[in-house]
Amino acid sequence: MSAHDAAPLASQRVWDLPIRLGHWLLPVLVGASWATAEWGLLDWHRRSGYAILTVVLFRLFWGFVGSTPARFSDFVHGPAVVLSYARSLRVRAGHALVIGHNPMGGWSVLALLTALLVQTTTGLFSVDTDGLESGPLSYLISFRSGRLLAEIHEISFNVLMGLVLLHLAAVAYYTLVRHEALVPAMLNGRKPLPADAARDLRFASPWRAVLGIAVAMLLVWLISRGLRF
Amino acid sequence: MSRRTISLALAGACVIALTAACGQKSAPVDPAVKAAQKARHDGFEAMGDALKSIMDTLKAGGALDATLTQAAHDIDANAAQIADWFPAGSGPESGAKTEAKAEIWQQPEVFAEKREKLVTEAGKLVALADAGDAAGFAEQVKAVGGSCKGCHDSFREKKD
After folding, report:
1. Helix, strand or coil for residue A10?
2. pTM for the whole structure
3. Partners of residue B55 in chain A, C-beta under 8 Å
4. pLDDT tens column, A160-181
5. What is the pLDDT of residues B74-97, one digit of tens each?
6. Hey, which bits of chain A come out as E strands?
7. Which residues from A are below 8 Å from B59, CB to CB?
C-alpha cells in the first residue's frame, strides 16, 4: 500500500457545477436524439442535436479556461504516462493518486468529445432520402454529399455507442473492483481524497461558465439558422 | 500437442477461413440489370437533387422562380420513368448492391399505386409552378416529398 492509502481521507471538491451539468446532460440528450431519430421526430432531433453541440462547444471552451480538473492540460498525457498508469492498475490497490480524470480516462474524454463533434457536425449537413428533412447547413452541399454524410452520421453513432459502452465498463470497473465511487463524485462534485490533495485545484468563476455557455449558444443558434445573417 | 502448436494451428485456421470468405465471388451481374440499376439510381438522385434545391430555397425564405420551376419539371419527367426502372430481376436477387426490396416485385399493384401517387403529385407541382402559384407550390412540395417517403417506407431497404 502506498502512503496515500494509509492517510485519512477527507471529502474534497473536484468537479465544478458546469462539468457535472454538462456530463449528465449528455446521456439525456444523446438518448433523446436516438429516440427522436427512431420515431421520425426530426424537428426535435435537430433541437436535441443543437443542445448536444452547445454542451460540446462549452466543454471545449471549459477545457482551456475552466477549473483545473476540467482543463485538457490537466488530463491529456502522452503514451508514456498512459502506459505507466495502465501498469499501475495491475496492482489491486495503491495506484498513483488521481484527483481529476486519470491518464486513460483523459483519452476517453477526448474520444467521446470527438465522436460527439463528428456526430453533430455530420448531422448539420445530412439529408434524408426523400429530400424533405435536412440539417441546417445541408444547403451548402449536394444531395449526394448530404446522403453520404447521413450515412457517416449513422456509422459514427455506432462508434459513439462503442465508446459509451467502454466508458460504462470503465466506471463499473473502478466502482466494483477498485471501490472508487466515481458516480457519486460526478453527482455531488466531491471525492474522498487524502488531506489537502485537492489544495492546488483552482475553480473558475461561474460567470466565466455563463460567458462560455452564452457564446456556445450564440454559435449554435447561428448554425441552426444556416449561418445566414 | 503443445499449447503453442495449438495456438498456431488455430491462428492458421482463422487466416484460411478469412481468406476463403474474401475469395467467395458472387455470380457476375447481368449487364442489362446493372444498367437498369444505374438508371434508377441516377434518376432517383436527380429527383433528390431537384427536391433538395426546392426545399433549400423555401427553407431559406425564398419563393417560386425559374430555377424552382425547372426543378419541378425535372421531378415530373423522372417520375414518369420510374415504371421502367424496376425490370424483373433487378432486385436484391441480382446479387448487386441495391436498396430495392423484393416486395416491389411481390406486390406490384401496391408498388404501382405508390409510384402513380408520385406521378400525380409531381404533375400538380408542375401545374402550380407553370401557373406561378408560389403559395400553392410551397404547399404541394410537401405532398411530393410525402409520396417519396410513402413508397420508401415500404419498398426501400433501410440501412441500420
Report:
1. strand
2. 0.84
3. 131-132, 134
4. 999 999 999 999 999 998 888 8
5. 999 999 999 999 998 888 888 888
6. 9-13, 190-194
7. 134, 139, 226
